[in-house]
Amino acid sequence: MKIQHVVVLGAGFGGLSAVQQLARHRDVRVTLIDRNNYHLFQPLLYQVAIAGLEAPQIAWPVRAMLRRYPNTRFLMGDVQSIDLIDRRVWVDGKAVSYDHLIVAAGTTSHDYGIPGVRENAIPLKSLADAIRIRDRIFSAVEEAVRTADEERRRALLTFVVVGGGPTGVELIGALAELNQHVLARDYPEIAPDEVQLVLLEAAERPLNYLSPEASEYTRQALQKMGVRVMTSSAVSEVTPFGVYLQDGRFMPTYTVVWTAGVKGVPLPGLPSGRSGRIPTTEFLSLPEAPEVYIVGDLNGLEENGSVFPQVAPLAKQQGAWAARNILRCLRGERELPFRYRDKGNLVTIGRNRAIGEVKGLRFSGTLAWLVWLAVHIYYLTGLRNRLMVLSNWIYSYFTYDFAVRVIHQRHQFAYPESVTESQPAEAAVSR
Amino acid sequence: MKIQHVVVLGAGFGGLSAVQQLARHRDVRVTLIDRNNYHLFQPLLYQVAIAGLEAPQIAWPVRAMLRRYPNTRFLMGDVQSIDLIDRRVWVDGKAVSYDHLIVAAGTTSHDYGIPGVRENAIPLKSLADAIRIRDRIFSAVEEAVRTADEERRRALLTFVVVGGGPTGVELIGALAELNQHVLARDYPEIAPDEVQLVLLEAAERPLNYLSPEASEYTRQALQKMGVRVMTSSAVSEVTPFGVYLQDGRFMPTYTVVWTAGVKGVPLPGLPSGRSGRIPTTEFLSLPEAPEVYIVGDLNGLEENGSVFPQVAPLAKQQGAWAARNILRCLRGERELPFRYRDKGNLVTIGRNRAIGEVKGLRFSGTLAWLVWLAVHIYYLTGLRNRLMVLSNWIYSYFTYDFAVRVIHQRHQFAYPESVTESQPAEAAVSR
Lengths: 431, 431
Hints:
Chain A has helices at about 15-20, 45-50, 60-65, 115-120, 125-145, 150-155, 165-185, 210-225, 310-330, 365-380, 385-400, 425-430; strands at about 5-10, 30-35, 40, 60, 70-75, 80-85, 90, 95, 100-105, 105-110, 120-125, 160, 195-200, 225-230, 235-240, 240-245, 250, 255-260, 260-265, 285, 290-295, 300-305, 305, 345-350, 355-360, 360-365. Chain A is an alpha/beta fold. Chain A starts with a strand and ends with a helix.
């Protein structure tokens, strides 16, 4: 039999786990395509945003992972469209033909059409986003020190996270620790209670996919850490100077992080579905093109009337499942319908504070926090990154320090109205 | 006596060493101003460029260093001009008054007016430069894999470093190791001898401030590592597609790093000198404004008819010296003329290969390399960064791996002439 060419789009959890399944087989060759040359460990992205980890520590070069697999090659490029009829993918103007295709392109931030979100809020999906958030936070604090205008200072020191899902909760919790332990020591010019941290959630409770008890624990833990948790608070607009809520209130701020939702990465040529999730057969393939599989966040298969959660364990399971179904096809065996093994949920809020729910069992506090640490180190790719992240965490735990507070690119903060140079300039910088 | 306000411009080696001298004294308060919020350990910048170290590991937040000094504060901003008459510095549109001023603003890349250098070559002076070089190198290699055009592939795989000073030598040596150990394993599509590494130097020998024997050692070591060392080769133009030499030859390449020269950062309001180095009295102050001191790379004081070398030890010594002269003034004592203590030179070329010259004594090879490692770890700022850099080096030494090969921003490579989409697209990406 001719060697079959399997093309995998996306080097995230889903794509990599597919590649790993296929790599040992002589009757396939694999091309993995991604716009980045690294696999990003998204669950720790928020720690890059708050200066706890360095960007490359949660990114691992794809080629380093593929070294072991002689039947697999990597192609860095942007996928422009997919041609289901001629079975090829267009990448940066060049065609790549496939016999089987696994689409694991993941999601991008979703603004639900709310005005100003795309222009004025920062998502937390990529390394560039995380570095941008970090630059924004530290630029805002530096600017707050320099300004003589009390109102402007208050807005510069207000940080708003929209979205009470795991990313939003973990980010605002880490921000609270940054404020308590790092900003308090580095900026004698700023009192810790001057910094306002706000979590906005449209639903009635944070982490609303968990039990009400878990949400309550989270709310109280965040409040103890100084976070204002505003639930039932939907955003109606984001401007360069703040956030409008649907009830008409305005919250002045220069830093809005948007974690409120995601949608599938649009790929011309593929069918679309709700929030960009593409409906598939129970084998994870397209009904109209059974050689094309959709896995992970993009997959819109329903089980008991609801879609699967968009989490790393699901993506991994689906990636491997699709790969195994391809191999079964090649051997002339019947494909198997996908079965999800729910491994439970785990969210960290801060030092010694986390919440876990596994198969109806709930645990919180230090135990949950330690489990969270262990799980994340375990699943992180590459021995070097594990050691680096672990040593960073140990360092931070004992010193209460987040060390990576380097501003790569200083952000500028406009004035709401045109401000003259005639304000008392000396006041701000001399004492 | 009224507390005196000392303003220090620049958080490099010179500025920080001045601040450290002044920090213990009650009769001065100090304002340190820098456009970045970190102190950059420039001697290791080339290791960020070749993916050996992560950017924050050689950058240390200024505020973390100033925590201990209650009389010192930090202001992040761009210095626009200096007003010697009214004794104030303009920073981002705001005035900061001083009683004494220490200018330690350092240097920027110098293109000597050679066409195309500013647009098409990358200097190696800032973190952003280093990350840009890293992105360029890895983007070029990825693009080389994708292209079907042999000539374009050769240009993409040619890396030119202009300038045979310590920065150029250390960078091209590290690039040779990157090629030998990392690219060879990650890119089965590329033969190691396809990658061309070129060091261009206008003078007759590399490291021409050292002895001819040291230059010869360096030349041979680099050649053994596969570097083409071209001396007496001055650049006449850099284009997006390559480098023209003064003898008319053209070298096709998409990556040119410019380490051929520096000039003082221009500061309106200060007198100027050759290459932007400002002549001072032997007390390091301006003849026309004795309360203003110029230290480090910017200082143009001559000793026996020649200016001092632009190196970290000199900057440190001058920063401390200027600070001590200010304190002497305050106590009514006579200022002391600057004396330079030459600590010698040390340049690393690669694994177990380095060259040192201290007070006429020359040593090379493994010993010099170990001394180089020890000195750099010792002088690096912050315990955390020392441990991080050391563990990175140990990791790289045993694995022959440079781990930080993350492309933050993919570079695009234009075609010399407009290229049609009709070229054999499939050829490059299918096999």
